[in-house]
Amino acid sequence: MTQVKLSGLTKRFDEKSEPAVDRLDIEIESGKLTALLGPSGCGKTTTMKMIAGLLRPTDGDILFDGSSIVGIAPEDRGAVMVFQNYLLFPYMSVADNIGFGLKMRGVSRSEIRTRVRDMLDLVQMPGFEERRPKQLSGGQQQRIALARALIVQPNVLLLDEPLSNLDAHLRDEMRELISGIQTELGITTVFVTHDQEEAVVLADKIALLFEGRLQQFDVPDAFYETPGTVDIAKFFGGTNFIPGRCEDGRITTAIGRFRAPHTAVDRGEAVLSIRPEAVELGGGGGNSVRGRIRSHVYVGRYARFRVMIGEVEIEVITDPGQVKKLSDGDEVSVRFDPDKIWILGPAADGKDGRADSDSARQPAG
Amino acid sequence: MNEKAPANPSRLPSLPRMRLSEKGARRMTIGVLLAPVIVVILLLFMGGLITGFLRSLGYFPLIGLNDFNFDAYLSIFTDNGFIRSFVLTFHIAFTSTVIASILAIASAMLLRPAFRGKRFVQFIFSLNLTIPHLVGAVGVLYLFSGSGLVSRLATGAGLIDAPAEFPALVFDPWAIGIIIQYVWKEIPFIGVIVLAILLSVGEDYESVARSLGANRWQAFRHVTLPLVMPGVVSASVIVFAFTFGAFEIPWLLGATFPKALPVLAFESYTDVDLAARPQAMAMAMVIAFMSSLMILAYMKLSRRYIRS
Ligand SMILES: Nc1ncnc2c1ncn2[C@@H]1O[C@H](COP(=O)(O)OP(=O)(O)O)[C@@H](O)[C@H]1O
Ligand SMILES: [Mg+2]
Question: Are B303 and B227 in contact (CB under 8 A)?
Fold first, then answer.
């Protein structure tokens, strides 16, 4: 299979505005499933189109197995892109749609017919040859679009938001199908998504993009355990952030001083981050502070507490049994396991790392 | 609404006066509102067609012809001149339509991408939609006749020795002048329709094709063309019907023999010999019939093309 390398890849649609894709460096391993993740408009589709050869990069290079393919026409790259809105040719039958790539290569009619049948089996839609795209549901169209791409046996498969137009149960089905086919055929696959959960479940590695720039390129768990910046951690959600200053493996915050050996910054302004499930209540010992329980909910499999430490509110997730021992207003010892603390650089916007909605919150002022 | 009686029920005696569903009532209201227009169209069109048909069968009491017969049809179909005219007219309509369609698609492809000054170019491109055919005919005369500008320029440049050597492009048996005029006039008509389709469909389908292994030409042939074809067909059907039945351009730019069918029909009709009237009407019927037939065949063919 093919290894894909993006090197300083840049796309500027016009001179005045910011580049849509800005100096991207990514090395996509051969035969792996890689996610391009980021909010809408961050340049994911643009990146895909450049890899497929449908857009010319303004700057930088794209290498397949070490050799540049920027000058090569899309039909000669061996990279096939499946568009977000499927784009089945409306005037063709399902069979003609799937067989399109082979017809362009001059494959004989009878061979096309057998291979189309194989593809329909692969995407679990046998017998759909004579249907028209209009007569198919969104999920079925997606499968046909996938079959149409796979039939030409691409070296690189590019899937643009393959799941985002499907409703929940179809999404799970499609996810399994993609993952199954990818494992079976071992095609180097890049798929685009704006949903971090989707990326985590499917991908071997994730490239996170904000505003055309690569934020982090890593295995999925790294985005939870060792995110590079507060923005990245926030995108993955559900973490407590406490601003402070760090030095020599310790961080000093408004609520105390903590030992924190794992860190993305050496010294200076920093943010302590810890996931709600890594905070222990009532244990005591090193790295502990006193807090007061503000509120709690019992969710069945776990319990969620909001705890005030001085002026700072944090979220804690514990086993459900804690509900019997602790009630609102109780004073409690709060322990931050040093191995679970991750120290980040300060938030890009200069403010503290206030997380959205259901993660840690600090009272105003 | 369904209780409301028509404003003047006595004029619409056939309207059933009973309770109708809302939808039926609305449909009926629309029918009533459209009635004057429909009546006018039916009177003018069907009336003309029926009168013409009757007269082509030799029924014209005013001049003392009271029998029905197929003499007029027999005489025109056995007349070599009529057959030549028919072939010429078909040639004019078919050639103009095909050339205009091809050039219109090419122009629309050129006008599709964004470029500096695009709006201006587009304005110039669609400008002659507003220019009457007659002006175009005069232009063709001025440019391409034996004493026209092109002929004199060619002489001046030494390409030909004398204007008389200039090939006959006007009043010529191949109707080249007529076809030039029709093509010039109809390119933007078909072109703006194709361009509108291209812009609304976008380039993603072609991108998909390229990504799947189609080269530029294959993507055009197998994706772009089928996508714009329905628009091209609708537009060129109109062009075909018009160029098959139009009188003034072949009258101005055509050769004396053979004449285009509409010219032949008109001249028979205005012939001092009243006996030629049924033949004129028979020709008009043939024109109407052929236009309809050609359009049907053309639509069938293009539909098959789209499917393949
Ligand atoms: N053809 C284009 N012309 C101008 N700007 C474009 C074009 N395509 C995309 N953009 C811009 O580039 C940015 C990235 O777009 P895109 O790659 O589609 O984002 P994503 O797929 O991540 O949602 C957006 O700001 C978008 O408006
Ligand atoms: Mg996109």
Answer: no
Residue-number span of the structural domain to which B50 is assigned? 33-69
pLDDT digits (tens, 9 = 90+) for A296-310: 999 889 999 999 999
Which amino acid, one-letter code, is at A121? D
Domain boundary among B69, B88, B115: B69
Find the A170 Cα to ligand 1 centroid distance in Å: 27
How many Cβ contacts (< 8 angstroms) between chains A and B? 61
Mark whether B168 and B235 lie in a shared domain: yes
Task: Identify which of A148, A155, A229 has the alpha carbon closest to the alpha carbon of residue A187.
Answer: A155
Calpha distance A320→B189 (Å, rounded): 74
Torsion angle of C-alpha atoms A48, A53, A54, A60, degrees rounded to 10:
70
- Domains: count for chain B: 2
Asked whether this complex has an ipTM greater than 0.85, the answer is no
What CATH number matches the domain at A241-361, 2.40.50.140, 3.90.1150.10, 3.40.50.10330, 2.40.50.100? 2.40.50.140
Superfamily of domain A4-222 in CATH is P-loop containing nucleotide triphosphate hydrolases (3.40.50.300)
Atom of ligand 1 nearest to the CA of A14: 4
Name the residue facing A74 among B211, B222, B307 (closest C-beta).
Answer: B211
Give yes or no for A144 touching B (CB within 8 A).
Answer: no
Give pTM, 2 decimals.
0.82
- Ligand 1 near A45 CB (within 6 A): yes
Q: Which atom of ligand 1 is nearest to the CA of A40?
A: 23
Query: Does B185 share its domain with B50?
Result: no
- pLDDT tens digit sequence for B143-191: 888 888 888 888 888 888 888 888 888 888 899 999 999 999 999 999 9
B193-238, pLDDT tens digit by residue? 999 999 999 999 999 999 999 999 999 999 999 999 988 988 888 8
CB atoms within 10 A of CB A196: 19
Chain B hits for A52, Cβ within 8 Å: 207, 211
Q: List the single residue in A with minimal CA-CA distance to B219.
A: A104
Is the same domain home to B138 and B61? no
pLDDT in tens, B279-304: 889 999 988 887 888 778 767 776 76
Q: Which atom of ligand 1 is nearest to the CA of A46?
A: 17
Q: Is B307 on the interface with A (CB under 8 A)?
A: yes
Q: Is A3 helix (H, G, I), strand (E, B) or coil?
A: coil
